[in-house]
């Protein structure tokens, strides 16, 4: 297994991994989530991510199979936290058959190395509160819970 930056030829596999992530994560946790978004828009969105210098698009590869992906993105400066240079771990997924063998850890380590190389001082990730296994994964890698978003339906 190797972790490497995605190239344009990986686009279909990155989109497929994102489709899987939406279906498994947001699709089971947020009834308002449009899980068909990556099917419709994924090629354009992730195609741009692969070539954007402010975005890290990684794939985990076994043989010629993509078995995981990670998207990381530099954040815009926030004047209310002027000393922070931030990057967001926007999405990460490992194929179910390959979980629990350190691939997620390798993807996260490569993201942190990329971020440090760009002067980033703080990396962040959003997770559904009910995604306890992903939260356990992040906490094991030094991420600490910060803000809590509360949604209220006012229809
Ligand atoms: C979170 C995820 C990327 C971790 O990848 P991974 O390759 O399984 O991670 P590692 O092997 O490096 O670490 C395993 C740890 O991840 C956590 N984990 C989360 N979901 C897991 C799963 N389904 N199977 C095994 N471990 C899982 C465990 O805490 C485990 O720690 P442990 O070994 O102490 O039990 C992966 O489980 C995944 O794709 N989950 C579904 C998608 C998702 O929720 N993404 C995050 C959205 S915020």
Automatic annotation (TrEMBL):
One of its GO terms (molecular function) is acyltransferase activity, transferring groups other than amino-acyl groups. Pfam families: Acetyltransf_1. It comes from the Bacteria. Keywords: Acyltransferase, Transferase. PROSITE patterns: GNAT. The keyword Cell inner membrane does not apply. Residues 1-155 form the N-acetyltransferase domain. InterPro entries: Acyl_CoA_acyltransferase (IPR016181), Bact_Acetyltransf (IPR050832), GNAT_dom (IPR000182). This is Ribosomal-protein-alanine N-acetyltransferase. It comes from Umezawaea tangerina.
